[in-house]
Amino acid sequence: MTATIRLGELAEFLGATLCGSPEKEITGLATLQEAGPAQLSFLANPQYRKYLVDCQAAAVLLKAADAEGYVGDALVVADPYLSYAKASHLFDPKPRAAGGIHPSAVIAEDAQVDPAASVGAFAVIESGARIGPGVTVGAHCFIGARCEIGAGGWLAPRVTLYHDVRIGQRVVIQSGAVIGGEGFGFANAKGVWHKIAQVGGVLIGDDVEIGVNTAVDRGALADTVIGNGVKLDNQIQIAHNVQIGDHTAMAACVGISGSTKIGKHCMLAGGVGLVGHIDICDNVFITGMTMVTHSITEPGAYSSGTAMQPAAEWRKSAARLRQLDDMARRLKQLEKRVGDVTPDGNASSQG
């Protein structure tokens, strides 16, 4: 079903300054290049400003500077991307689950499901679980014993919560995610691995989003903790007893080893790996594919690895890397020889 909103209503909703007709109807969102005469677009990245002149959108979300000289209708805002994010929910075609419990769902007698919650087909809710008001539990979800899901949560089909997972309000978990699986804990005795029971749980704060096929393992002793407002992309591994601070975001395929603590307002790009038992302070940005092997104590951006090159050049660089030890030894020998023949014995290149 397509939503239709008048431009004046949209301006009021976003707190925007309207330049144009308040009666114009908006039926959707699109990019500057693809927007049609009934769609809203936005300019957030300066590199796309070149598309503004030929844009066919009904209206465009613009900063005040970009709106000067623009001949079309506009909504002038301080942050076009943030306004686009807010407006996107008005046009979201995602079906809304009907309230109530599907007849095929299996719910323990002592589980508590709020009357305003929705439980989909073939969902299983085990003993002692509590489902809050406005929660959607999608088809084929599994909610383990003593789990708690706060108000307004949304679990897509086939989400799995093992026992003793506590989830705050307005949490979104996408399909295939597994929360509370057993952490990777084993003791080695004479080459034989002995399993360690993972007796902790998982504690997830408010307004968290967890992507498709992401795994958050339960704690070995204390809980694994995900703070308020954390955003986890698809296919992320959070090991046992990890702690993630409020409003930290991680892109796909990040892997975090056990007992690592990550601060607030951090950003981890795709494919980042962290060893276990380290601390990352607040306000750290780690670039894609970085391998973090020790604690980070100062805010800022961090990288590791080598940047992309044409394959032939990369092979040459890799060959030179293998020669670094030999080159370092030869340099020391050369410095010693130069030092032996200079009057003051100083082989430094500083003069």
UniProtKB/TrEMBL annotation:
It comes from Pseudomonas trivialis. It is an enzyme of class 2 (transferase). Catalyzes the N-acylation of UDP-3-O-acylglucosamine using 3-hydroxyacyl-ACP as the acyl donor. Is involved in the biosynthesis of lipid A, a phosphorylated glycolipid that anchors the lipopolysaccharide to the outer membrane of the cell. It catalyses: a UDP-3-O-[(3R)-3-hydroxyacyl]-alpha-D-glucosamine + a (3R)-hydroxyacyl-[ACP] = a UDP-2-N,3-O-bis[(3R)-3-hydroxyacyl]-alpha-D-glucosamine + holo-[ACP] + H(+). This is UDP-3-O-acylglucosamine N-acyltransferase. InterPro entries: Hexapep, Hexapep_transf_CS, LpxD, Trimer_LpxA-like_sf, UDP_GlcNAc_AcTrfase_non-rep. GO terms for cellular component: membrane. The active site is at H240. Homotrimer. GO terms for biological process: lipid A biosynthetic process. It comes from the Bacteria. Pathway: Bacterial outer membrane biogenesis; LPS lipid A biosynthesis. Belongs to the transferase hexapeptide repeat family. LpxD subfamily. Keywords: Acyltransferase, Lipid A biosynthesis, Lipid biosynthesis, Lipid metabolism, Repeat, Transferase.
